[in-house]
Structures are given as structure tokens and as C-alpha cells.
Amino acid sequence: MNVERFAIVSAPLSVEVLTAHIEREARDRGEGCGAVCAFVGVVRATHQARRVRALEYEAFAPLALKVFALIGREIETRWPAGDVAIHHRVGALQIGDTSVAIAAAAAHRAEAFQICRYAIERVKQVAPIWKHEFFEDGDAWVEGATADPADELARQTALERACA
Amino acid sequence: MRVTVQLFARLRELAGCSRCEIQVPDGSSVEDVWRALAERHPALGPFAGAVSCAVNTDFARMQTTVLDGDEVAFLPPVSGGSC
Prior knowledge:
heterodimer; A: five-stranded antiparallel β-sheet; four-stranded mixed β-sheet; 4 helices; 9 strands; 36% helix; globular; B: alpha+beta; 5 strands
């Protein structure tokens, strides 16, 4: 099965597909693949004490894919033998649905954990993806950072979180 | 000249459209496009300092010069929040 490393999709996500794919990609590189670390972001039932009924993700898909590829290049620079795959879902999601799946591969577990954490931190900082939450009593767009891939301070923060 | 503006998430809702055409003088920057857009949709005004932008699906700066037919996207702050 052909699996994209980076994808924005409206269909349900499968982290198992990603972990299997990234292991095969990293298997014959350097020391080989000894660790795959997965992150699965899921739709939470509350936001700041408000009960979430459902939510929608919206993306500027062509730019989001470029951002994922950029994150991939940043990871290749910092962890040359590592690899990462990132899939993000868009559209209407229910509580418990997977919104983002990340799989990171490396020769050893320390690097796999670092790559995985770095990838999700960067996705949250830079990817043009927006979350619209619907509560029992209203709705709200979740707005955090102004996306700027050239913001070196943000990148350092992601790196520090990954390597803490 | 004419550029196509794309809006997302809250900006799209506030403007009531996801795409629109904006006329700006030759040599205009992304910021000039934003000003013309905010004039047409005053509800967007408060976002001036918080948007990022892209030209033809690449991140750009507000100072970037736009060309006739360019697609200019304005992006509200992204959803990355607490860790």
C-alpha cells in the first residue's frame, strides 16, 4: 500500500499504517530502525472547563503539506538517521476521534521520542490548521500562535520541549 | 491589478467569504492588500497584528510585493495551544 509521509485527510486516521510505513522507510538506513514512537492527538471532551460537543478542523492544505515537509527537513537536519510521518485530519470530528497522527522512527528510542515530540510541537506552532469547537452553549475558534516558520525562537522552544 | 484573497477559519467567518478579488495598484505589498480587504470588511481590522500570510501557497511577509493574479492567503493564529 502506498502511504504518503505527509497528508491532510478527511477520512479517519490510522496510526498503525503510519508506524508500519515509517519503520519500513527507516529499516535500511544507518543502524536501522530500532524504535518507532507514535503520537495520536484525539478530540477532548472539554476545553477550558466547557463541555465540547463536536469540533471541526479546517486547513489550508497545500501550505500545511509544505509545512509538514519543512518539519521533516528540520528533523533530518537535527536527527539525520531519523524519519517522521505526519497525517492530520480535517472536517467534522467527534469526541475521541483521532485528529492528528505522527510516527517517528530512529535507531534508538531516545531519538524516536525526541523526533515525535518535536514534530507535534512544530505542527502546533506553524501548520495552517484551525480548530473550531462547538460547545453546549456556543462555539469558538481556538487561536494560539501566529504561524511563522522563520521564527527561530519558536523552533528552539520546540527543540527544548523535545529534548527535555 | 487584481489579486485573489483566500481567507480561513475566523477570518473567513468574519468576512463572510473564503475567496474574493481585490484591486490594488501595481507595486502593492501584501499589507496593502490587507488594508484594502479590511476596508471592505471592517470586522477583520482587529486581526492586523496577528495574521500571517502566504502568496501562491508559500509563506510570505506583509512587506512582500504582490503581482497581478497572485493568490494571497491570510491566516489567523493557528490552533496550537497548551502542551
